[in-house]
Amino acid sequence: MKQSPGTEAKVRIDLAAAYRLSAQRGWDDTIYTHLSAAVPGVSAEIAALTYRQWIGDGSQIDGDLEWPALLRGLDQLSPDYRD
After folding, report:
1. Torsion-angle region of residue 44: left (phi > 0), alpha (psi -120 to 50) or beta?
2. What is the pTM of this model?
3. I need a labelling partner for 49 at 20 to 30 A (CA). Which of 42, 71, 78, 79 fits?
4. Which residues 6+ apart lie within 8 Å of 7 measured at CB?
């Protein structure tokens, strides 16, 4: 029986999915490997700062809707990416 991945493994899987999606859509030459992910367990201060820098004042969506749609597309094209 396959074991469920831990938290860090899940973050790494999502990051790998982001790289694969960018390559499938021809974005790999434009992102210059500038994709990143955060593993839970960082200090609350750093997490709050990162959140403010990423979200800003909340007036923009910034990918909140796009990521789930892209993952659904990857699930259809390459369902084994989580393995």
Report:
1. alpha
2. 0.51
3. 71
4. 39, 40, 41
